[in-house]
Amino acid sequence: MAVDSLQLLEHLRTPALIVARGQVKFANSAAKALLGGHVVGQDVRIAIRDPDAIAVILGDGGGTVQVRELSVGGSVWEVDCRDLSDDERLVSLYDLSVQVSVARAHADFVANASHELRTPLAALLGYVETLMDPRAGGDEATRERFLNTIQHEAQRIQALVSDLMSLSRIEANKHEAPADTVDMVAMLREAAGEFKDGAQVSVTTNRDTASIAGDRTQMAQVMRNLIDNALKYGKPGGPVLVDLEASDTGWILVSVKDEGDGIAPEYLPRLTERFYRADTSRSRAVGGTGLGLSIVKHIVERHRGRFDITSRQGTGTTASVMLPLRN
Fold first, then answer.
1. Looking at the whole model, is its pTM more than 0.70?
2. What Å distances lie between residue 36 and 27, 70, 168, CA to CA?
């Protein structure tokens, strides 16, 4: 192979090998980082130990195959082999881990969404079928109880569909930085006032105004979700403390703190995963969809900010949003 072509391969981020008569004659830097610099001069069956990959590399006509392990474990790789001459073959190794992970996450998301919808739908159908039975129709107390359950389950489905649509819209424009001006002080006070138990929610700020470049509708959703969570999972009747602090470094920190039971440390890293619940029965009892914190995380990331949750069992939980101030 020409020297200029080898130099071109050397600059590729894709691991690439030149194999001649079953031996590795050349490996670019990416291939050496993956397989080790010692592979040059080795039998390709030692350098790459996957039987399916070797069958493609040494077989007639080359081709492409996906393998899970080369001489390193974990990732899913596509091994592509192309003839360069009668003696030489170019072997390119493509890491498919991200694509596989995304596909798996999508499949899990669809499965979880289906499960979350199926549960209340099953309850709805069961109660409706019972009400259609003439023997149940004459019992007014039973009828009222069943109708209340049907309403509750229908509201669960409505909330879930609304959150699914919201998450879809957020992900669709997550790479577009919002440009409107949003006064977060006014936003916090407005969000706190929307709750019937607003007397439990107190708002403190160190400035009268603090503006960010943002999407007003999305930021209002963030604040409502965090305050709603604090009221649902905090101490019954206990206070929810909302604080905004604008710093001279060009950032604002909004924290929403409750005085509830708190969350065990092992659950904290997964709280922003879709449909993840630290306490499934309690979440469903208070009407949680399992998507609220995932929505918050995606919105904050779109606003080039950071979202954190800290908690101490028996003391309470604090959700914090850090956002850049508008210059």
1. no
2. 9, 12, 42
CA dist., res. 91 & res. 39, Å (int): 13
The residue type found at 126 is: G
Helix (H) or strand (E) holding 34: helix 29-35
pLDDT (tens digit, 9 = 90+) per residue, 211-226?
Answer: 999 999 899 999 999 9
Instruction: Tell me the pLDDT tens digit for each residue of 50-99.
Output: 888 888 888 876 777 776 656 555 577 888 888 888 788 898 888 887 67
Query: Cβ neighbours of residue 312 under 8 Å, at least 6 residues apart?
Result: 262
Q: In a 3-state reduction of DSSP, which class is residue 314?
A: coil
Q: Which residues are bridge partners to 63 per DSSP?
A: 81
DSSP letters of 168-211? HHHHHTTTS---EEEEHHHHHHHHHHTSTTGGGEEEEESSS--E
- Domain range for 79 is 3-95
Cβ contacts of 259 within 8 Å, gap of 6 or more: 234, 235, 238, 239, 315, 316
Buried b (16+ CB within 10 A) or exposed e, 199-230: ebbebebeeeebbbbbbeebbbbbbbbbbbbb
* Residues 59-73: tens digit of each pLDDT: 876 777 776 656 555
Same domain, 290 and 308: yes
Show the tokens assigned to 303.
């606003």
How many whole angstroms separate alpha carbon 40 and alpha carbon 26?
Answer: 6
d(CA 188, CA 155): 26
Please report, as a single letter, which amino acid is at residue 54.
I
| Token pair listed for 147 | 């109708």
> How many domains, the chain?
3
310 and 262 assigned to the same domain: yes
